[in-house]
Amino acid sequence: MTAYILRRLLLIVPTLVAIMVINFVIVQAAPGGPIDQVIAQIRGQGDVTSRLTGGGADTAERSSGPGQSRGTRGLDPEFVKQLEKQFGFDKPLPERFVSMMASYVMFDFGDSFFKARRVTDLVLEKMPVSISLGLWTTLLVYLISIPLGIRKAVRDGSRFDIWTSGIIIVGNAIPSFLFAVLLVVLFAGGSYLQIFPLRGLVSSNWAELGVVDKVLDYLWHMVLPITAMVIGGFASLTMLTKNSFLDEINKQYVVTAKAKGLTERGVLYGHVFRNAMLLVIAGFPSAFVSVLFAGSLFIEIIFSIDGLGLLGYEAALQRDYPVMFGTLFFFTLLGLLLNLIGDLMYVAVDPRIDFETRES
């Protein structure tokens, strides 16, 4: 098993580099770089990104200079060169990438172009918020999906299975951010009731509250975002649980166990559960990563929750390259490591699985 872990760790390096290269090239080729953002602010034109993507006459002034896509007509060329040097665009593209990766290996992600803070500090500040959303969502999704999936498998083809499948289809078909909008309209003062707050993770007077009131205030703010994320995420896990149990229930060892006089509950939880839950439990790390880095993006924007999703969204709009690439490197590395942990969880759940033997 040690050799397998070492091989997987070594494989992380080329995978991470390939992901960074692809994203680096794509982002550099996109119009509206950091220099364009600065020039737009100097001219009082606001965010250049939306105007560049709109096309029209604006796009006729685009320039091919590094880090910029809009012309610098009317500006001192020396000033433009100073901007390029300030942002590091005076160096060739390959040299910039190698320099960036060399810093990232030491977990030095540099400073944000527009927030005047270190990228590491920004990530550490926002991470607890997104982790909080991710943990609550993943925990509730598992607590709902596993019992529901088991019950659907046991009562396969019944009325319960049919009408719950209808709910699952709806949950799977509608994205979580649309559920979030619906919840805002219904319960956050959109058009009907105003029961829950619309913005933030805590109230403005949170620091003045007692311990119990702080907890209640936090949970009160979490209801709508977590509900939207759970509704959008429980469907696939429920069907995975059901199908895993159905596959195991029809195997010969279950028939044998029942023939020996074991109760249905004893067979289900004494024999079937461990085998059927292998995929579900081992998939927890990847499910958490998916919720944390993908599912929370629109939710954080809709509910104005200051987490990693909102940070990445703002960085993409501003072309804040250090934040974009620094967070991409960190979270890609974290995702690859969690995938390895997922494989190790397979072995922990079922020691019969030996990845090293299978690879050889």
Give a description of the structure:
The chain is mainly α and 360 residues long. It is 72% helix and 0% strand. The chain has 15 helices and no strands. The protein has helices spanning 2-29, 34-42, 48-53, 77-87, 93-105, 119-154, 159-173, 176-187, 211-249, 252-259, 264-282, 284-302, 308-318, 321-349, 355-359. Helix 1 runs antiparallel to helix 14, helix 7 (159-173) crosses helix 9 and helix 9 (211-249) crosses helix 11 (264-282). It is globular, with a radius of gyration of 25 Å. The N and C termini lie close together (12 Å).
The secondary-structure element order is HHHHHHHHHHHHHHH
Helicity level: over 70%
Low-confidence stretches: 47-71
Kindly state the mean pLDDT as a whole number?
78
Mind describing the biggest β-sheet?
A: none
Number of helices: 15
Distance between the termini: 12 Å
Q: How big is the Rg?
A: 25 Å
- The coarse silhouette is globular
Total strands? 0
- Beta-strand percent range: under 5%
Structural class: mainly alpha
